[in-house]
Amino acid sequence: MSSLPRRIIKETQRLMQEPVPGINAIPDENNARYFHVIVTGPNDSPFEGGVFKLELFLPEDYPMSAPKVRFITKIYHPNIDRLGRICLDVLKDKWSPALQIRTILLSIQALLSAPNPDDPLANDVAELWKVNEAEAIRNAREWTQKYAVED
Amino acid sequence: MDSDNDQDFCDNVDSGNVSSGDDGDDDFAMEVDMPSSTERQLETDDYQYKVLTTDEIVQHQREIIDEVNLLLKLSTPITRILLNHFKWDKEKLLEKYFDESDDNTEEFFKCAHVINPFNKPTEAVRQRTTRSQCEECEICFSLLPPDSMTGLECGHRFCLSCWREYLTTKIVTEGLGQTISCAAHGCDILVDDVTVTKLVPDARVKVKYQQLITNSFVECNQLLRWCPSVDCTYAVKVPYAEPRRVHCKCGHVFCFACGENWHDPVKCRWLKKWIKKCDDDSETSNWIAANTKECPKCSVTIEKDGGCNHMVCKNQNCKHDFCWVCLGSWEPHGSSWYNCNRYDEDEAKAARDAQEKLRSSLARYLHYYNRYMNHMLSMKFENKLYASVKQKMEEMQQHNMSWIEVQFLKKAVDILCQCRQTLMYTYVFAYYLKKNNQSMIFEDNQKDLESATETLSEYLERDITSENLADIKQKVQDKYRYCEKRCTVLLKHVHEGYDTDWWDYTE
């Protein structure tokens, strides 16, 4: 494997030195481009109290292309599908090399606070979110309790 | 186009070959010689289009920029971005620009993703550009002296090597040209072509970039179209965008408006519908609907290919006995000779009618499709004919004929192909046409052109010997003149119909 670019080394260091509240990203012991991520559900959202596991991978041409991020913990959210894939503009066409792991994870946390059912990835969830928001939020709470809260 | 053979002796020469017995009914629809529209030329010469090479396109692009800049007096890269924003419609750009010049200049440049060039540099930009100590590049996190950093007017600065990598990725991997924006997050200010060329040292990437911006210039400019022929690098420039026949230098003839092969008499929108219809599987599903039913028990699709109406489903897990006609269970039909007592029930009748309708619409489609495809295939063969005709022409010159005397053969193949192509598209036109008096005249014209075209094709496939040469030449010439004339008549008739609203459509 080619040596790790300065950008990744520095970024990882800073991430460790100044962690973001509610977000925890630790590089894998064997692969410095692979991060084990934990995001806590934001307060005042149906995901409150949940601890969500994600995986994050920095591709070969990072930061020219966006990191690949996926939820591992099951989550009931209109912009996240069954496989944990996330529909988020900054992970796709709005990616800029000046963005970082930190900013991306913050965006994901913000997405939990503000689901966007008009740009859905999980169609059934988005549909319910639009026609019966109360029930959708109830489902999201249930899923959070069931899959994202450790006893 | 050449119209040197518009001598009108075609009518009487034709009667000559009716006697040769190959076209039986020749009471063709000559009554199309209606008043008006005689002055209308099918291939008008007032449509002055030009075929441009890639270099000429680039040159043309520069001319437009210079022209606009005489009025705007901005820098060339900015004018280029503005023009691209207005899809290279310079009138629109100028109109907007002078319309909004007083209070809305800011908005005008913002929409085009350019920093207003009349703005004084903001405090932040000035500070950054005059800073002497090292800055950190937000992409690679390196601390670098200011002369290693650069940025656009928006003030976002990154190091030269990150810019290089960023632009290269955008150009090579993402195929972006004129629409690459600043590397900062959320900044939509566009990178101009001069900056790109300056920051990207790799010659291959530069070439690719040039191709991309030239391509977007042609694609978004309404007066330009790439020749759709494979590997052709010419583009056609027209004075105004219309469905017109244009002839590329590579030899390809196409419709400027839609880029398909020249398709007179059918209009672009019907041809588009037709191609889509032929391409997708809608007809396959029509066929399934018309020819199959589903087993009422297990829903497996069944094609009945003969036999009686007592069906036994072949699905080994089902083996259901039912009546093909009413889809009811076979049992009540009894053991007597089949006598479906539910046959006339309303429901069954409705189902039958629906199936009948699908069947006839399928038959109708296939009628037009087969004829359309047939001419298309023949046209491919006629292209081979050019080679054999060339050989024939050489042979004939050895039989003491002069070069000019044998040119009729090539001309004949030209006309044959032209007629085939027209015929092909007449079937698309006819498919969408509702029947009325004019459509019947059209069909007569079509029939007449078709039979004459087939005869011409036949003549051209005959062996030419020194004995029959004079005879064949006469026949071929007579026939192609006739075909050409009938083709013109047919097209004229359709065009007249467009002008005077004769045509009703089925959809």
From TrEMBL, chain B:
Signal peptide: none annotated. This is RBR-type E3 ubiquitin transferase. It comes from Drosophila willistoni. Keywords: Metal-binding, Repeat, Transferase, Ubl conjugation pathway, Zinc, Zinc-finger. One of its GO terms (biological process) is protein ubiquitination. Residues 1-40 are annotated as: Disordered. Residues 12-21 have a biased composition (Low complexity). It catalyses: [E2 ubiquitin-conjugating enzyme]-S-ubiquitinyl-L-cysteine + [acceptor protein]-L-lysine = [E2 ubiquitin-conjugating enzyme]-L-cysteine + [acceptor protein]-N(6)-ubiquitinyl-L-lysine. Residues 1-11 have a biased composition (Acidic residues).
